[in-house]
Amino acid sequence: MKYRITHKTNYDGHESVSIGHNQAWLELRQVHWQEVDSFSLVIDPEPSVRTRRIDSFRNPVHLFSFNEGYRQLTVTATSVVTVTDIPLPGAQFSVPWEQVASGVQTHANAADRAAAEFEFASPRIFWSPDKRRYALESFLPGRSMSDSLLDLTRRIHEEFVYDSRATTVNTPVDEVFRLRRGVCQDFAHLQIAMLRSLGIPARYVSGYLRTVPADGQRRLVGADATHAWLSVYGGNGVWLDVDPTNNTICSTDHITLAWGRDYSDVPPLTGVFIGGGQHRLVVNVDVLPLA
Amino acid sequence: MATGLSPSTRTERVFSCPPFVYDEVYGSDGAPRGHWAKFLTALRSVPAGEFSRRNEQADRMLRENGVSYHSVGKGGSTARPWRLDLLPMLITAADWAVIAEALAQRARLLNLVIADIYGSRSLIDDGTLPPEALYANPEFLRPFCDIGRLDQVPMFMYAVELARSAEGQWWVMADRSEAPAGPGFALENRIVSSRTMPSAFKQIPVERLAPFFARLQNSVRRRTPRPGDNPRIVLLSSGPGHPYYFEDVYLARYLGYTMVEGGDLAVRNDAVFLKTLSGLVPVDIVLARGAESGLDPLELGGYSAHGVPGLLNAMRSGNVAVTNTPGCGIVGAPVFMAFLPRLCQRLLGEPLKMPSISTWWCGEADSLAYVMDRLDQLVVKPAFQKSGGEEIIVSDLTVAEREKLVARLRANPYSWVAQEKIARSAVPVWSSVGIRCGHAAVRAFLVEDEGEWHLMPGGLIRVAPDTGPMQLSIAAGEGSKDLWVIADGKVDPVTLLNPQDQPIELRRTSALFPSRVADNLFWLGRSLDCCDFLARLIRALAERLADESNVDMVEVRFLARALSEFGQLEPGFVVGGLESQLPSLTEALPDAVYDAGEFGGLARVVNELTRLASLVRDWISPDTWHRINVTAEKFRASSEKEWRDITDVVSSANSLVGDIASVSGLVFDGMNRGPSWRFLDLGRSIERANSTARLLLSAEWKRGPASPALLKTIIEVLDVRMTYRFRYRENFHRNAVLDLTITDETNPRSLAFQLDRVVSHVDRLPGFEARPLRSEEMRIVMQAAHAVRMLTSEDLAASHPKAVSAALKIVDENMTQLSNVLTRKYLVHSGIPRQFTEFGGDSR
Fold this sequence. Notes:
The complex is a heterodimer.
Chain A: E1 2-24, E2 34-44, E3 49-54, E4 60-66, E5 70-83, H1 97-105, H2 110-115, H3 129-136, H4 145-159, E6 161-162, H5 173-179, E7 181-182, H6 184-197, E8 202-209, E9 227-233, E10 239-243, E11 248-249, E12 254-260, E13 269-275, E14 279-289
Parallel strand pairs in A: 6-7
Antiparallel strand pairs in A: 1-4, 1-5, 1-13, 1-14, 2-5, 3-4, 8-9, 8-12, 9-10, 10-11
Helix pairs in contact in A: 3-6, 5-6
Chain B: H1 34-45, H2 48-64, E1 68-73, E2 76-81, E3 84-92, H3 93-117, H4 122-125, H5 132-135, E4 157-164, E5 170-176, H6 183-196, H7 210-222, E6 233-236, H8 245-255, E7 258-260, E8 265-268, E9 271-276, E10 279-282, E11 285-288, H9 297-300, H10 311-316, E12 321-323, H11 340-348, E13 359-361, H12 365-373, E14 378-382, E15 392-393, H13 399-411, E16 416-420, E17 426-431, E18 434-449, E19 452-455, E20 460-464, E21 479-486, H14 515-546, H15 553-565, H16 578-594, H17 602-615, H18 622-639, H19 646-670, H20 675-697, H21 708-717, H22 721-728, H23 734-743, H24 751-763, H25 776-789, H26 793-797, H27 802-827, E22 834-837
Parallel strand pairs in B: 3-21, 6-7, 6-11, 11-12
Antiparallel strand pairs in B: 1-2, 4-5, 4-18, 8-9, 9-10, 13-16, 14-15, 14-16, 17-18, 18-19, 18-20, 20-21
């Protein structure tokens, strides 16, 4: 599946911003099921300085700064990408889930030790006994990793209401759990918290969904903006992406932008600036299938 | 009363050491250890009273030098005086060399661990370190992964907490790898004790500290990204709220670095600059003293006083060196102590030379079981908190607290370590009741220079009254001591190195003058003059009230009104029948003066004066700082008296007037006429013009002749009594008073004189030399000066001096406006940074 993705962020300030430093996780990372054919990042006005680096999760990050003042800022990321269908990690995810958790907890092998990076609390994700209890209703003793995981994904999809007004970008996971409402970022955080509370590593994935559904299929939720889901560890270095917002295993409709422990590791655009007064941020995402 | 030592105790022990504790002074045979013998002889030669007196002198010196640390507790942080016990702890150079070798190995090891953590993480990959040490550790900050330079060690400065156990073995109690505090306190202790120790001790060959600091300077200099040039180095402080702010100021001055806060630095084009009055000046090296997690709000989030957005990327671009390299702090977490022997074998291929205090990481099932078995004999700590954090002494817990701890340990075992307790060695401690036994914690400091590690030949000793575990912060314990490393032979005198063979470039100004400092000096100048003016005003009123037999109501009414105008008295005293309120005014004045309450208060002005002075300590002379400190101390002492009446007010105001005059004298005589003096004096002149205009306005001139009593009061408060008498004797006329205080350009207290001064300062402000037309601030001050100059003698003599009032109003308004414009102009580019983030998913 080939896409052209346009991700446009428009910052509109009341007063001039005198100095600004920004970071953007807007370039698609390299993953083996995804081929990035082209990428461009157009920043208007032209920043005084811009650099690109690879962060510690191996995501590309763009940094740019302004020495001169501006009132409006438009950041446009355009990517052309080919996504291939990932074969399901059948065998690896058929083991009992406890086996995955104990491998990580006992540091069984180098892959498990590396996966432990996504096992613990992170800036926006904390465990709690009630979330663990919720997860344990799906993660029954001896049940396979895949059955347990898909059941939990289904329950979050069914028992939580998609409501973009119920939460903000800073709503804590516990609050989402209490409200039983939220958006994709909230559901991803919540499910990650539940899995980690069981000792299963899970990472936060920021990305896109195709905008126009394939013939005869329903339009997926969250397609006009960036999307978020999670990637779950199943042992031996194998990960599986699931999307609780749409109750699905991710495939060619999902385009991976970046991943980290939670949202705070990979915000699409973040910055520090002086001045500006009141401001407005408008984001437009368009995911156009090319072939 | 000090009993100390008398001739009859000549052969007796100076103190007694409890059992099962190493005695630093006496061997097992009861005889003094070799390196103590000479010291004890000297100690015995000094009369006890003399030693006591010297100790008090040392305390006084520390207090007067403003040596302090901040202790943060309920109700904010308060400055606590630093305490020093003149009796040092002694160690032989040979013993210290053994320690130096062991600690150098440890420093090398920790550097390798740091490099691996932020590099390949091979130690996690091969299982030498458990993944929890990083991944469950909130101090593992990933933006630090690619900022280090491969040709330099990340941690160049390092401190270690040491203790000596009963067997005489040295143990490492904690590692300090993130901007270690204490070397400045160690140096100040040495300086104070060498000035106060009786001469009997002078023959003892004590190793000097100065070479260590020369090493430190050299090492910092070598980290420049632009070798060859003379690097520009700044010391980045977390500001006056930080516990060790004193030390920041002290080290910056001693090492010759410009002290800055985060707001003073700016990143442009991936390079770091200092915001100065004359523009942005590039910075090569940042000696960071605050928490590394606050260094760059862009990548690390949050705001702290020393944060500089974009700093980390400037490091990556190779344009600036920050030392210690951010990220070093992590190895100071106690979890690493549990793995050091293993890490040492793996990375250096040799055993660890000095053991760490036995540490068990509860994340391993075996260790947890072991810890649970003997919990009551252990100290429990959060595994990832850098040393100096929470410490739980299990044997001190109640049953309920212990259960709670056990539950916390079982819930997240990997977040905890347990450590053995050590009975620290015993040293003699001087106290007002003679010599007692104390238990020593040693903080040792190391610096890397040209591939070698150098241990400071000395250190910081803290003492606790018992052998129990002691908090490891440098403020812990009952007081501090100097550590003397006793050399084998003679010690060469060395002071801070300065290449003597080549002349340095001559300068007229220091190039680095941060805008923030200009602003603070400006307000210090204002505050100085405000203090002086209010003290005079209050003195005038208090003197009149104190003399109950002869109260002139015109004068009192005027003064009370002026004081309420300046926010020093409640307006209630001004309206209505003041006569009936006299007794209550007499009673209320002391409270209004001494209580730094919500309502102005001279006490508040004095506090503000010391606060501002402390912000610019680096920029005013030590004598000026000292004088301001003493002034405030004196004022505070009289305000704390139980009984305060109107006569106390008179005497406080009197001495305040004198003290401020001597501060002003120091500033005027001693301060270089550079930008710092200009801003200070500008503040002072603006304040004086402003308060003079306001005082004259509050006289509310009415039609007809003014009362001589009122005129007399005015010339008294404005301090022109002498001149007036010389010219006019006791002949009080309004026009003469107005001339002297407003239009007479020869009188330094007149408005015309002050405004001229402001004009000449504003004219010389940097950055406006080449501009056509007048700057905004120049127009403001010239308008005021013009209004005053245009007054005619008829205006002054008019029976209703409306023109004078109009001119005074212009001065009043324009001075306020000028102050705002200057503040905006010189401080605006260090505005408060803000953050924005695009949400991660879905439109909201």
